[in-house]
Amino acid sequence: MECSELTEKAVTHLLGELEETDRTLMEEHLAGCAACRQELSQIETAWQRLGEDPDAPVSADFRRKSLQLIEDEMLRRRVREFRPPRRWIPLAAQAAALLAAAALGWLVRRPAATVSAPSVAPAVAGAPAALPKGTLSNVTYRQADAEGKVAVAFDVTSHQTIVGKPEDPAVAGLLAYLVSQGARTAGERSQAIELVSSHYGTASTPASPEIVSALTATLRHDQNPGVRKKAADALAGFSMGPEIRAAFLEALAKDSNPAVRLVAIDALAASAKQSPDARTIESLRERAVDPQENGFVRAKAASALRGVEF
Amino acid sequence: MISGADARADRALLEQIRNGDTAGAAELFERYAPALLRFTDRLLSDRASAEEVTQEVFVKLIARAHQYDGRAEVASWLFAIAANACRDRRRRDRRATVVPLEAIPEPPDRTSHRGDGIEGALISREQRQAVRAALSALSDEQREALVLARYHGLPYVEIAELLGISVGAVKTRIFRAVETLKSRFSQGEASWNAAN
After folding, report:
1. B115-153 per-position pLDDT tens digit
2. Which of B54, B124, B185 sits opposite A46 (nearest CB)?
3. Which of A50, A67, A72 has the most B C-beta neighbours within 10 Å, making it the best mutation to test the interface with B?
4. pTM for the complete prediction?
5. By CB atoms within 10 Å of each CB, which of A228, A283, B93, B111 scores lowest?
């Protein structure tokens, strides 16, 4: 063994990977080389000194915040992986059979397809009660009262299909209604947002004020964090106006879900890069230094600030 | 680094993540967060940044779970993500951040230091800071390889796989790191002896 090989052999030995034959050669060399013995001693000392940096444990606070972040991220993924059913795509793409504006206007004003039957609707004497078109559900019956009249109560549900171009004001209005309040379940609202997101926000089809208002209201008020996140993603794809900026700033300051706050940071930072805005910069700074804030959000805010020139 | 049974369990947990099950991600966190935090802490010399990067590793794990091709163990894959994230972080922070050594938090009570009193604790703190300063003086590449070998007990082959370099390159990085540390610690002791 040569003196120049000492470090390699010594470290490999300390790591437990030195072959037996190499070890023997090293020991033979050391027996006759005082300089290498001294150098080996220094290498071993350095190796031991590294052990004076003990492992720091995972704190309970870090563990709790991280598990929360993981849960939020999994939720984000599940929402992101959602794709609208195939039948939605031709619905928006086909423009051939646009309904008359008047009919659609009626639907936009009264889009709830479920109409409760009046609690008491007298049947016309001599003729059967007009049978409603649609599916009857939630049916209840009342036995004959003192006057001998029975009663039947029900909901009528009918299925409507509206076909039109995204830029048609009536279609935009219907979607805005569904986003903001018309869809009952979080899944239905998410689907409406998905459709809006994929068809509006381009130069040829800018988002109407109605849609922007519906999405900002959803971002502010929807109970479901997945839906709020979806609304934020959709808004991030539109050009940033005062209404959208205000909604993002509010989400950044108040939204309980870090995934929503992260989208707000991305959108605000992208806008601030184009035209720095004092309130945006201040809000990002507050997030970056808030010790109560989620670590990932803090890092994102700090990183966003670094990308903004002001 | 890990047994075959553990590796199989890791893959099952990754499959859970692919299926949208949060429990899989939480279990992988419990398994690997302590080691990843130790790794990132030593690479970055800043506990807060290390915690953020460790969280980032798990966010990336979730985002990329469907890209995992099974060629490396899940554990190696996690460490590779962490090493890349640390490199990005250091590149980004290099211009702006100088971490004072005083900012390095002390680990909680160590049994070996009990009974030494304040003096013992101060010496321990000083020693620790000296080690961190020495590690910080190494290049990123040398520090990564050395930390994986010295503190995580990984063999050369696994380090090579994890960092995507040859075994020869791993050895070169570790040996050069040790050469640098040897000189640094020897000089430190010489000046200590001269002063006393």
Report:
1. 455 555 665 777 888 888 899 889 999 999 999 999 998
2. B185
3. A50
4. 0.52
5. B111
Q: What residue type is assigned to position A156 of the chain?
A: V
Helix axes B47-64, B74-93, angle to 10 degrees: 130
Tell me the mean pLDDT per 10 residues along chain A, length 310: 89 90 91 91 90 84 91 72 47 41 40 43 49 70 80 76 80 82 78 86 79 92 89 92 94 92 93 87 90 88 80
Residues 6 or more apart whose Cβ sits within 8 Å of residue A8: B171, B175
Q: Does A48 touch chain B (CB under 8 A)?
A: no
Task: Quickly state the pLDDT bin for B94 (edges 50, 70, 90).
Answer: low
Q: What is the ipTM of this complex?
A: 0.82
Backbone angles phi and psi of A155, in degrees to 5? -105, 145
HEC letters along chain A: CCHHHHHHHHHHHHCCCCCHHHHHHHHHHHHCCHHHHHHHHHHHHHHHHHCCCCCCCCCHHHHHHHHHHHHHHHHHHHHHCCCCCCCHHHHHHCCCCCCCHHHHHHHHHCCCCEEECCCCCCCCCCCCCCCCCCEEEEEEEECCCCCCCCEEEEEEECCCCCCCCCCCHHHHHHHHHHHHHHCCCHHHHHHHHHHHHHHCCCCCCCCCHHHHHHHHHHHHHCCCHHHHHHHHHHHHCCCCCHHHHHHHHHHHHHCCCHHHHHHHHHHHHHHHHHCCCHHHHHHHHHHHHCCCCCHHHHHHHHHHHHHCCC
CA–CA distance, A186 with A222 (Å, rounded to integer): 9
What percent of chain B stands above pLDDT 70? 78
Q: Closest Cα to residue A190, out of A81, A268, A89, A99?
A: A81
Out of B48, B55, B185, name the one closest to residue A45 (CB). Answer: B185
Distance from CA of A56 to the nearest CA of B (A): 5
Beta bridge partners of A136: A156
Q: What is the reported pLDDT for A97? A: 39
Q: Amino acid identity of A186?
A: A
Q: Which residues of B touch A81 (CB under 8 A)?
A: 20
DSSP conformational letter for B109:
-
Closest-CA distance, A4 to chain B, in angstroms, reads 11
Does the pLDDT of residue B49 top 50, yes or no? yes
Subunit contact A70:B128, Cβ cutoff 8 A: no
What is the average pLDDT value for chain B, to the nearest integer? 82
Of B17, B22, B186, the CB nearest to A42: B186
